[in-house]
Amino acid sequence: MRLHDWIVLLSCVTILGSGRSVAQTSFAPLYWSEADLAFILPEGWTRAEPFRPQGITLSRETSHIDLLILEEVSTDLIRRQTLEGMINARGLMPLQYTVQTHFGQDGLKIDAVDRLRVTLGIGIIALLPDDRALLLVGIAPSGDLLLNAALTFLLDSLTLSASVPPTLPSYGWLWSSSLIDETFVISAWARGRADRLYGLDTTRGVVVFDATDGAYTSLIEFNDPAQATGIAADQNGMVYISDRACRCIRRLNEAGRWLDPIGKFSGGAPHSVAAAPAGIVYAVDGSANAYVLDILTDADETSVNLNFNTATVPFISVDPSGTVWVLEWLRSLMTGEVSAAISVLETAPDENGKQNAELGWRLQFWIDAIHPDGTTGFAVAEDRIVIASRAGSIASFTLQGVPIPAIATAGSLSLVYGQDTLYSFDNAFTLWAWSRRAEPDRYGGQQLADDVPVFGRLTSEIPTQEWAFMGQSGETICLYAADLRRTNAVAIGVDAALRLFAPDGVEIGYNDDHLDSGLFGIYDAALCPTMLPQTGTYRLQVEQRQGDGVYGLVLRRDAPLALGVQNVVQVEGEIRDLAPQERWTFSGRAGQTLTLTMTATSGDLDALLALYDANGTFIASNDDATDTDLGINAQIAQVQLPADGTYTLQAGRWEGTGRYRLIIAVIAS
Prior knowledge:
Elements: H1 3-13, E1 28-32, E2 37-41, E3 46-47, E4 55-60, E5 63-70, H2 76-89, E6 93-102, E7 105-113, E8 119-127, E9 133-141, H3 147-157, E10 172-178, E11 186-191, E12 196-201, E13 205-210, E14 216-221, E15 228-233, E16 239-243, E17 248-252, E18 258-262, E19 273-275, E20 281-287, E21 290-296, E22 301-305, E23 315-318, E24 324-331, E25 338-345, E26 361-367, E27 375-380, E28 384-389, E29 393-398, E30 403-408, E31 412-418, E32 421-426, E33 430-435, E34 442-443, E35 454-458, E36 464-471, E37 476-482, E38 495-501, E39 507-511, E40 525-531, E41 536-546, E42 549-557, E43 559-560, E44 568-575, E45 582-588, E46 593-600, E47 606-612, E48 618-622, E49 634-640, E50 645-655, E51 658-668
């Protein structure tokens, strides 16, 4: 028995033990107060000491990531030279420059190595919506699978406020398309180049779709009878189909012509196929729970055993870097229990296409509640793993096993990744496309989270953008859209309007210029307060009225208060340029006398308080308290409530921003 098999055996024996490595369940936030940014720390990374006044450093074992902010006065040349300088200072040489889009603007990625090629580096320039530049430089030992994933993770979780908890953006719906011919029996997908998406009909052939909108293009029928089991495509435009009928891998070129097949497999195989960016083909061979991974290149053909106690046919996937991943179900030798495990192939073909002598699997983590009978798809992107099920959901994990919010679908039969887009096919003959960046000029997931700013860009080419959020019948919300670059309240930058639709599609709110919301510019928009009539998903449309530029958008919900047993309640909040009001609700009784005090605790906030009854009728307000000891803080002193009901206390500003403390004292009941 090979050493690897003994390791797997020990893993199986301890499958139920306390030492089992399972997927993690939480993320740690990172608040960078100096830059007013927040991130989610990738698993295993910690913050180290700042490497310079404008930057911070993250570390994990022998890997490091430096983050640096350059103010908006910097030029493209200064940014690039600064990034190159950070890379050179770490003894690395730039190899490849790639233009990347971050937050709706062109940025730059530089791949680098040291002279001995034992250390790799990745440098990224990302322009933020406020025109500052975020520079990231990561270094790690060559072969590290997690550095690129960590950088992507940081950028995806970035929140443009050090006081707002960061969140990972969920996948947003990009488009969906129903098949024009429901006689297609599509079991698997592959994302090709030139905006092509290939669906596999197991007996008829390859169905070609447009990957930009799901439109049907053509059917390329098999040239011989087939029992196809899987499909893959490489960066050269070649399509590969694993076929049990010929016990081979069929090949289809980009022009739609069948080429000579490759590989020779045992009866009932190959079970699936995957392709690496360099054109290396991987296929699962074997039977009777003894599976191997065959590796086919132009120069060589070899195989590596899969785990000896695999309970069923495993799934394989190749990530964008060419690393091979496997999803297996391993049977415990003690209890017979079957559990899902994720592993990676430790060595890959060299630059000449030859395999190294030693190939083996490294267990990454175990996954609970993923069962083989219900699993229909497995795919790996730069920074995450996704698993589809017949139950109608797509589970998502980081490369280290931390769960990420799933996508709910109508029944995911298969899925595939391609250029940051996830494609799934359901049992209603509908093809779905999901993206974390559903629009190129948008920062933040399409689903709004409470008090988490998102940003979009409106131009003559993109005059509208849509967002969504979940709402409950009867709750009250505020929505704000503002041009945060405006330095003059009456200047015209981007003038945006807000239009809100209820779950049944009925328009329930519209605003162009909201002058009473506390927003800085007269062209900013707000829907505040807005009571929601139904429970469900609300659709918000941001519309260009005039001007081009970036707007910020935030959702705030009324927050309930309960008067304490000592008749005094104290809470804290924050007033920001993009969220200039915070509304608190409480139950009051007729004749109660209250004193309400709002005190600024940070920034240059000049507090403003207003009180409303259950009907929204104004009762009282204050800017500067009568009590001179409170300075420019606000206080509504000894106000008597006129009736039983729910009251709203609106904390706002006369000017400025900052955190505040709110105290409600019951003077008389």
